[in-house]
Amino acid sequence: MADTLNFSLVSPERELYSGDVAQVDIPGTEGDLGIFPNHSPLMAAIRTGTITVYENGAETKFFVQGGFADVTPAGLTVLAEKAVALEALDKATVEAEIAALEAGLSDLTGDAALAASQNLEGLRAILAS
Questions:
Q1: What domain range includes position 104?
Q2: pTM of the predicted model, to two decimals?
Q3: Which of 46, 92, 99, 108 shows its CA 20 to 30 Å from the CA of 4?
Q4: Do 61 and 115 lie in a common domain?
Q5: CB–CB of 54/20 below 8 Å?
Q6: What is the average pLDDT score of the chain?
């Protein structure tokens, strides 16, 4: 039984993280997920929020927007639409994105409204942390 999980976080621009870790917490659209070594295979959609990587007693955090998490026997791969180290996130950019989402939210319905609401909630949570 392996005591580490091979984890890779990839955005369209580059691979942000790759290595063996103890645990990864991801914000799924259906709820938060804690992925440990030997996790059952699964694929989940990612919502706006924070991925927390636990390695050697330390935590590393990344801001993500959209994408998918794929757990296989080989490990966990997160393909994010947008990802950046949390400490590198620009507060002014997040505030501008919140304002734009709030302005257009009333025009949306159905799945588009749900996705925008989840994105807005995630962005607000990032600013509050």
A1: 90-128
A2: 0.86
A3: 46
A4: no
A5: no
A6: 92
